[in-house]
# Entry
Amino acid sequence: MRVLVLTEDSSSRDGFEAEHGLSLYVEDGTRKFMIDVGASGLFARNAQRFGVAVSEVDSLFLSHGHRDHVGGLPTFLELNRRATIYSTESAFEPHFSLRKNGRFENIGFPELSQSALAGRLVFNPGVLKVDGRLTLFSQVEIRELRSEANDTLFTLKDPASDALTEDAAYYSPELFSRDAFAHEQNLAAITETGKKVLFVGCAHCGVVNIVNRFIDIFGDAPDVVVGGFHLMIPSRGETVPSAVLDKIAERMAAWPTRFYTGHCTGRAAYERLYDVLGERVSFFGAGTSFDI
# Structure
């Protein structure tokens, strides 16, 4: 299995652009799929730099409903007319980030015509077996080591409310509730060589809780985990408290697992994870590629 990082917050190679977002391209034998599409059409430009044809992607897995992971969807739909797109139903509901100035900013899906996804969208009801080697799962309970980076993220108490007709600067706090991340899903993949790989988008439900759910479903820990671990608060530029981070690192070290991370993990948190995990954890950027 080969993984190419199309979109990430930083660039690891000359000529590759970066933005706050995540998009991964994966090849395993004849299978070609993507996880997320970043915040814009940037993923497509970086794909071209890799020599990847977005039009040939078979499946697109959307990890959750935040703009930095789904904002590039209009570009994807323009370039690709064949891929099945997998999501949770609640991912399409409005999602918000509370900024430092007290403003609730809509960070949900970009505007899409109803026909754009017709016949291509599949919703994950909780656990969805895509084929013999790919399985999606959601509904992860946040039982321990909740990331404080989630504290600025909200959903509408009533998703059908017409409150979104107001200017974003005047949204009333009473309209919102803390995001429980029911819209987040994760992808488990078995490589051609039998390796068990877990792809996460932001791991809002917590990397420890997600891996424990993986173990519940598949019997043991993944060989590899790839994605962001949401240990940084992008809207504040802060890392989660070191005491929580150290406990997360301790739990991660107990599994026989290799980790590749970036995006919402943040450099400072990564360096602390590296102090515990050493060469078992690597940081990626746009332009990074690696084999599993």
